[in-house]
Amino acid sequence: MSQKTGSTYNQDAKKAIDSPTLQKNLHNLYERFGKGAMQVWEELEDQGMRDRVKESRMRTLAHLDIVLAELAENVRKRGGKVYFAQSGQDAIDYTIDVARKNKVRKVVKGKSMISMEIEIDQALAADGIEVIETDLGEYIIQLADDRPSHIIAPCIHMDRNDIGQLFTEKLGIEPTTDPEKLTMVARKELRQELLTADMGITGCNLACAETGQISIVSNEGNIRMVTTMPRVHVALMGMERVTATMDEHRETIQLLTMGAALQKLSTYVSFTGGPRGKDDPDGPEEFHLVIIDNGRSKILEDSDFRESLACIRCGACLNICPVYGKIGGHAYNSTYPGPIGAVITPLLDGINKHADLCKGETLCGACLDVCPVRNDLPRMLSALRYKLAYGDNHWNVRQHNVAESYVYAAWQRAISHSSAYRRMIKTVRLLQKPFIGKNRMIQRMTGLAAGWTDSRDLPPIAKRTFAEIWDEKYAKPQQQTQEIREEKTDD
Amino acid sequence: MTSDLSFLNNIRTALKLPQGAERTKNMFPALFAKPDKSKILEKIANRSQDEKALLVDQFKANCVTLKTVLHVAETAKEVEDITVEIIRTKEPEFSYNRHIIQHNHPDISGMQLWKRFNRESVTVHTTFPGDPEITEKTIAAYIGITVPRISIAESGTLVQFTTPGCPRSTSLVPSIHIALIRGEDLVADLEEAYALIEEINPGESFVFISGPSKTADIEAHLVHGAHGPKEVHIILLKEVEKIPEAAAESQLANIAEEEACQEGTTKENADTVKEGTAGLEDPAEKMN
Question: Could you tell me the domains of chain A?
């Protein structure tokens, strides 16, 4: 299928499975944070918390127009600027406009998923502005000219040797593989950038409408630097990342840090909602909040998928997912990998285009169990597959595989009519003969079915099926009972 | 604000609301309903000595896990001695000069640190409002001293508000952050802290700080000091038990008295929790 959509899902997945570094790191991630998050939820004293937060997330979404209007009003009261961006391009245009007006030469960024979603870095660079990522993982990715592969741990696919070599090449340091030394090198390099940048760009983990503030979590402290030292701060925010009240904020932010890294709180939770006060010696002179739709209102509209906007981007579903745990983040070819990415990437960027993501997950339900707000990702994945199977005008989905739909229609007919089914069994019994190997299993098949036997054997249809043996031994004299039994077997 | 209108209208359409019907928050009082916080505030104000002692223990344990160095002091004099000792024993990270920067707060200025260092090459700067050189001084400093308004036992967290005399960078840019806190400002959990924050209603900026800056982006190996302070020292001044007659007297008077009695107390008295070994297996430490 991948050839058909031009997707690199299969190749990237294979590359990931062949990388021992990535496999080791993914395994550790699963053992520590995937299982760890499950344990945190089990031991949570307040078992009602997750449901309460989900309820408040859904309530906020149902009243999003009111909550966002309130947020904007309260930020403006403090002298902050608020811009509502319908598309990613609108957000880029606004930010570049702010940068030009302030004669910005250098931008430092705090890790922000939405900035990657709208691809603002490229646009800023094209305008002659230097952009520096300041989260250590993102900085390494930027130096390596690579793509992040996890929303919380961007360079999980690299090991200390890769990073040491990269630093020697790009920063000219003495070769070392010591994480401590490497971190200190980055600390020194980035401190210079952070203290001399003109503008800081961050995302927003969770805004609070009633106080008119955004809040951002970080462990490194780069977010605080980015929001404190440069003259201008632009915060890019997905329109769903907001709570109405501080009470809702408190519980939601706790679920975020617990789900992301099993922490009661991350090292820093920064609240900011305007430019520096008149007598404040530091903090930005201008504060801009850019609230971005970029396809989210369409998700909001569809009751099947609205729930996906309740996501708080903790990444727990990546950590527990058996598929992500093998193929890593790059195969998803999206800002958002893992189970949540498999749902929202198609919704934001085209369901046909990202068909492999919907089909790649196993629907095992681990993501639902680990999700702090119990988002039913498996249900939404099934809904996406349904659209791919039958097509959908509203989402502009064409049937993903027409031939497949005929095969299933025929199969449905065959298995719902006992005589047709029995005829089919008899035919296949004849056809399978040349394929049965020495171990009495079907070891390889031809044509479309060849893929099935690439890595496993298929048991052949028995010489005589259970139903046939039964008929011979017991049922023959009593024709009527047999018919009843037949129906039962066929159900 | 034309962008507001079409953007919010688009959301209303998505929510299948009738066109042009703008909704206001007054129509949905439950959405921004504020539960009564007076019970929580009362609980904070009327905590018994035993309960307070338990909170201190919980705070201590969390500091160990977070690799925050917690010093517990009985008197203001001890706080001062511990602070001086930290300044003397720590080396600057980014330069050879020993500059320190402190918030303009009575609990810090009361220590008169500049007097303690008048014969040493330590320069003490204070973040007086209106000083245009504060940022340069902060960048030059290797130690920043602040007085967080609230501390949270459940998570080992400091809550630092920004005001003109207490800028954001003091607890961030220097390599070492020293936080002076008082036992009476210690609350049990986030719920209590949020109730106080809403009561105090701080300005546009405040921050929760739980331990020193850290990262685990390289092979999930935990390293302290990514961008923020490498070390956080909290000096907790134990609450003085109020004697009924003296209850009306200010805390400061009490401390001044004790200070006078205990002149010459050695700093070894300080109950110091050094970096512990507990929590090494704690997966929470190993994240970015």
Answer: 44-294 (3.40.50.10420), 403-490 (no CATH)
